[in-house]
Amino acid sequence: MDNTIIIGTRGSELALWQAHHVKGLLENLGHMCELHIIKTKGDNIQHLSFDKIEGKGFFTKEIEEALLKKEIDVAVHSHKDLETDQPEGLVVAAVSPRADARELLLIRPESADSSKFFSLKENAIVGTSSARRKSQMLHHRPDIQLADIRGNVTTRIQKLRDGQFDAILLAKAGVDRLKADISGLEVVIPETDVFVPAPAQGVLGIQCRANDERVISILQNINDAPTQSIIRIERTVLNRLQGGCQLPLGIHVTKNKDAFHAQVSIANTRDAPVRHFHKTGNDADVLIDDILKQIYS
Fold this sequence. Notes:
alpha/beta; D-Maltodextrin-Binding Protein, domain 2; 5-stranded mixed β-sheet; 9 helices; 13 strands; 30% helix
């Protein structure tokens, strides 16, 4: 019987890094693995920003369908891309330790101005396709102009170097994982209490069929339980707000001893006023309720 674990992934350079990373972890445990590349709706639609694509799960749906059809055994995702309601028959069986969840603002040297917030010149053109990043950038710098940008990490950095933008916003974790070349660019890394990351940013979600006891048992060996408990708070808030990539929500939870600390940024639309607040609590479910009460108040 062939016990090779077939891992499904998107074909972008970052998705492949993530899939190879999980493949390496499983092979270190003695399991044979193969990668299977699957193209998603989000890969096929490159002319629209994330907040303009119809529906949800546009980087995951086709991969999840392959899981349900038993074409693959495991799917590796950026956890922030996953729907908070899992499709029937699927489960996120493991998550990775969280990488650096902060944002990375990359600026062309000629567009930098150290006297301005984020060291960005007046009326700069900033590239991002994230509603959350758009709303928070406008909150801090209402003078800037926003422009949609798509493509993988290195493609976006090249577009910046080519002068299509004055600056771009990326997840630091992705740039770090790829060891992308950002030499010659000005780098600003806002702390998470200034620019709040997406729910589960910096975490990999490893998905399989809910009835596949063998694979679930294997994946438990690479699950990071502390990270799992933290992002449950972030993703439950997102779920209760019925939000996806189109919702300008930032939420980042840390744990210090027995206390959870949550930074939250929320807006109704990308160009609406942003509400930014901090909540602390020892009980995760009480903290979730407190955050939602504050949002709805």
